[in-house]
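Need the bound structure for zinc ion, inputs here:
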Amino acid sequence: MKQLLLLSLLGIALNSFAQTDKELAENTVDSNIVKGHIYFLADDLLMGRETGTPGNKIAASYLANMLRSYGAKPNPETNTYYQPFELVETTAPEVEFSANDKTYSEVMPINANNLDLSGKAIYLDYGSDTELKKADLQGKIVIFKGGTSDGQAPRSVYRRGMEKAEILKEKGAAGMVEFVSIDSQTWSSIAHSFHKSVRFTEDSTAHSEFLQLWVNDSLPPKFEKGKQVDFRISATGKKEKKLATQNVVGYMEGTDPELKNEYIIYSAHYDHVGIGRPNAEGDSIYNGARDNAIGTTAVLSMAENIGNYPTKRSALFILFTGEEKGLLGSQYYVKHPIIPLEKMVYCFNTDGGGYNNTELATIIGLERTTAAKHIKNGAETFGLRAIDDPAKEQGLFDRSDNVSFAKMGIPAPTYSTGFDAFDAEIFKYYHQPSDEANSLDYQYLLKFYQGYVYSGRLIANDAETPFWVQGDKYEEAGKKLYHMPAALKD
Ligand SMILES: [Zn+2]
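Answer from helper R.:
Posting the output first, comments after.
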């Protein structure tokens, strides 16, 4: 009797002390723990966590062991918290180009092997599709003006150049040279990004023989359209190197007998851009505190929280490598998922390019999924207003790892620190050596993390499964992935 009474008293007591999701988010996110993660991940020791470097591996080890300490289960394929894979890094050659006896000093290899070529090229001005399809280009080098008569911005030159390259390859041309006119600062930053490139080992290199160059000259070329040009191209010093790297993964099962078959992914990339050009103070280590020690720490906070207080749905934690090399870690993951993708009902990604407004959480793709209400509630409960992408022209939805999942059909927004524009305050730190742990507002970050954890719990415990809003670009992909019956298809 006594015991029963005690048990029932205890039962009542336990019930009345059961914490709400809000309290669980509030109580488990700790400012000092958060600082510990960020200061470690952004330490100079890790040399900017560039994919394939020892600093990247040290970061991965730290994250793997945090997941271990929270009780996550390892990758069943490796029985570790890693998903290892290999990439190939190419260092572009130095290229010299001359045409009709004039030598040009600013030449960028968009795609070039080591070679020494000379002979007659053909000049086709901007070159329309119709002109290109008509011309005999077999084995030829074609010289163009970059872009179109009404678009010479680097981005449009690049896009149009890729279209021309496709036609030229079909016609059996040997390569193309485009004359562009780009200011020296933009030129050097583009040259920097083409200097090294990284791809998957298994990616086909079928077209790598096709030569593609940009020549920067403030004056438009004075060749005659349709006429031959004497040219010489020499490219030397191209190198390839293998990079070993790894995603970090771990999962936790949900508590609900039905909902545990559905997983919420909590993800962030942990790599950054490594060592680069020094700033005025001589600092050359790009520590990436904002980009993306902040996001990585959001995932750790979630894992710690769910480790202590499991949600109804299961949780998969993924920390990506290779994001800065072109979203490679997330692309690799969706091709090699450790648990079938159709069990993943949501990807709550977090990536931080920086912030300029500490009253906000900016969620790229907020209004694109039916979980928007939970994310707004999550952020607002901790004093932050949730807004959608304020800089749509930047194409941010397609520039972080969430898009790898969205393309597969999984609803996937990116939760980011508050910004209301891509302005000078953002660029002060974005991909700069100044992006350091001691430059962050930790009072703000506490709210940011509590908002993330609370939002995640609301999504993971909701009886209703989240999905794309009607008419979204990825809605069809989602219906296909989840094998939705025809009756649900509109
Ligand atoms: Zn970045």
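Comments: The CA atoms of residues 291 and 352 lie 5 Å apart. Residues 21-89+242-488 form a domain with the Aminopeptidase fold (CATH 3.40.630.10).
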